[in-house]
Amino acid sequence: MQALFPQPLTICMNKLLCTVLLSALPLSGMAQVVQSGDWFDDMAKDADRFYTRDRLTRLGVAMGVGAVVANTNADQSIQNSIQAGRNSGTDNFSTSVKQIGEWKYMLPISWGISALLPKDNGGLQTWGNLTLRSIVVGTPSTLIGQRLAGASRPNEEGVAVPDSKWRPLQDDNSVSGHSFVGAIPFLAMAELNPNSIGLKTLGYAASFAVPFSRVNDNDHYPSQAALGWYMAYESVQTVMEGGKRKATALRIVPIQMAHGQLGLGLQKSW
């Protein structure tokens, strides 16, 4: 029976994943992620923090920059330069890392680590929890961005004009999903090691591996890979913020009124 992946690819993937996981083991001064023990409650609070005015403004600016690059000759020019430098080495590298950007792999891996290991306040279990929640909180915006802008892949078959130009609702490649998912495990590792310059630098550098593979393999334009990476960055930052709320945050909360009656009120948090 033929293996799902070629043996060299499987070995390389395993080595890379092991490197990430081992790097996420507890070190002195590790950052922590707020975990209440109720996943649904934690994820609801993550979503509450993600969809704030400040973060949506930053995402809007990022999409605006991406639009400028995508709708001018800049995207194709960068793409041409990268393709000109493509060789067997870059192809082998891309092959070894691109599966990390698959939802179907990273979701069960991160879920399993988060669920099966004891809560460790900054170690491997925390890495799994942070990775899982970051993927979950950022996925809706990534999917919306993909479809809303409607750009195509390089040399995509079945479309009239396979270029980076935005054609709203006509296609779904404007934000690279692989880049989004593939950056999160490494960004999580970086954020969990704030006192280790080496690991933090390694994490941020490695977070560009999957985005690079998408451009190298001619599966996405640079702007699409960059937007996927930025979605990942904002998602990880959202979960890392924990229970801290912005001063401008307003919530609708139940309140007890006179004579035992219940009502709704606005709560502002500082």
Walk me through what this model shows.
The chain has helices spanning 7-23, 39-50, 53-70, 74-84, 88-97, 103-116, 124-149, 177-191, 197-206, 209-216, 222-240, and strands at 250-256, 262-268. It is mainly alpha-helical and 270 residues long. The chain has one domain. Residues 1-7, 23-29, 243-254 and 258-262 have low confidence and may be disordered. The protein has a two-stranded antiparallel ribbon. Helix 8 (177-191) runs antiparallel to helix 9 (197-206) and helix 10 packs antiparallel against helix 11. 59% of the residues lie in helices and 5% in strands.
Provide the descriptors you would attach to this structure in a database record.
single chain; mainly alpha
SSE topology sketch:
Layout: H1 7-23, H2 39-50, H3 53-70, H4 74-84, H5 88-97, H6 103-116, H7 124-149, H8 177-191, H9 197-206, H10 209-216, H11 222-240, E1 250-256, E2 262-268
Antiparallel strand pairs: 1-2
Helix pairs in contact: 2-7, 2-11, 3-11, 5-10, 6-7, 7-8, 7-11, 8-9, 8-10, 8-11, 10-11
Helix content: 55-70%
Distance between the termini: 60 Å
| Series of H and E elements | HHHHHHHHHHHEE
Strand content: 5-15%
Rg for CA atoms:
20 Å
Question: In a few lines, what is going on in this structure?
Answer:
With 270 residues, the chain is mostly helical.
